[in-house]
Amino acid sequence: MSHTQEILSQDFEHLWHPFTQMKLWPDEPPLVIERGEGNYLIDSEGKRYFDGVSSLWVTVHGHNHPAINSAIAEQLKHLDHSTLLGLTHPLAARLAAELARITPGKLNKAFYSESGSTAVEIALKIAYQYWQQIGHPEKKTFVALGEAYHGDTIGAVSVGGIDLFHQVYGPLLFPVHRLPQPFCRQCPLGLKHPQCGLACANALEPMLAEHGDEICALIVEPRVQGAAGIIVQPEGYLHRLWEICKKHEVLFIADEVATGFGRTGTMFSCEQEGVEPDLMCLGKGITGGVLPLAATMATDRVYEAFLGEYDDFKTFFHGHTYTGNPLACAAALASLELMEKNQVVQRTAPVIEHLAKGLEKIAQMEHVVQVRQHGLMAGVEITADKSTDTPYEPGLRIPHQIIMAARKHGVIIRPLGDAIVLMPPLSSTTEDIDLLLDALGKAIAEVCGS
Ligand SMILES: Cc1ncc(COP(=O)(O)O)c(C=O)c1O
To answer: Residue 244: phi, psi to the nearest 5?
Structure first.
């Protein structure tokens, strides 16, 4: 049995993969990724692939960056893990101060966890408990967007709005007020932008006028709904939501798990519209994409509602075993230092522009109905018939076929519904982008026949 076959036989026998129909899994043996070098992944047969999805939207500086690796190795000489329950450690404190410094507005406190889902879960619980503790126990429900994605734990699924992922759990979920999705091409209100005057955001006004007394917070993915297929919000949308929330005293939760740490051309997407959230969820790129770490940022105003004597029982009774793991904090601090020293976010500007130029050509293709891009996040939506905007039958799995074809051209990407997602690392060069788009163009042509 070859080395690759040995790994695959154990995988097929024992491993249950995320978001994967396991019955079909052995029919198309996966790549076995054994090494990462910069923006490339190398499989067990020695073949190199450009990491076109930043290993699920996390990679910032490329794989195995020596500065991050050595920060982790250095930390290992001192402390592998210690709890934050009743104790602290230097890097958890230093990283919290750094996050408070770089996040927008008055976010001044960091609560750690390990994934984007838990960062969201924590924000929801903090928002809920906040109102309980300042004398408004009636403020109990949340507002979220149509087709939102905030993670896979039950609270995050409750505010999520993607039926394919979430519907089956319906009876387990708490009810949520739902805003129409800000998706101009298929506007749920049947309107046209900009004549609509941001009607999808304005819909929040009557909702809060009527139910604001019982609503504790709104949660939104700022500027881009990632998992919905890279849906880019019209300019001013985010700021409008924020203004309405402030007017009606509803907390504003920015879920920057996907968009944070430079992914959309600024350190955080909220900055692009001058929005200062009450709570912010961070994950994915926080460690440069190296170790699992997440943080929920809160303003002092929110935090102070949790202060009291022990027997006031205002404590936030929440915490995970690996909360603030020192190795993950070391990676995050090293990544943030690199970002600042090398001006990583500023340097993405020409790469973002290069990506936009290249995508113009992709948009002309016969089976591409829309290309959506914001920063280094892009979605290329595939259609059976562009003139009538008719999608392919889901059973044909055309987007899946396209990403498999792209692998033959040396690129790893992933589909989301009818869209192909491109999420190159922030460290991508224009040559990397050319390789990515060339592979995508060829793959679409091969599968869709144009
Ligand atoms: C906006 C947003 N929030 C939360 C999450 C959940 O993050 P995780 O998969 O790390 O739990 C994701 C994941 O894609 C996301 O895009």
So the answer is: -70, -40
Structure tokens at 232: 């880019």
The mean per-residue pLDDT over the stretch 15-21 comes to: 96
Atom of ligand 1 nearest to the CA of 284: 10
pLDDT band per the 50, 70, 90 thresholds, residue 167? confident
Å from CA of 327 to ligand 1 middle: 21
Q: What is the DSSP letter of 377?
A: E
Which ligand 1 atom sits closest to the C-alpha of 56?
A: 14
pLDDT digits (tens, 9 = 90+) for 208-250: 999 999 999 999 999 999 999 999 999 999 999 999 999 999 9
* CATH (one of 3.10.180.10, 1.10.3720.10, 3.40.30.10, 3.90.1150.10) for 31-64+348-448: 3.90.1150.10
- Residues of the chain within CATH 3.40.640.10 domain(s) are 69-341
pLDDT above 70 as % of the chain: 100
Handedness of CA 413, 415, 418, 424 (dihedral sign): negative
pLDDT score of 450 more than 80 = no
Q: Give, using CA atoms, the residue closest to atom 3 of ligand 1.
A: 150
Which CATH architecture does the domain made up of 69-341 adopt?
Answer: 3-Layer(aba) Sandwich (3.40)
350 phi and psi angles, rounded to 5 deg: -65, -30
The CATH 3.90.1150.10 portion of the chain extends over 31-64+348-448
| Residues 123/278, Cβ–Cβ less than 8 Å | no
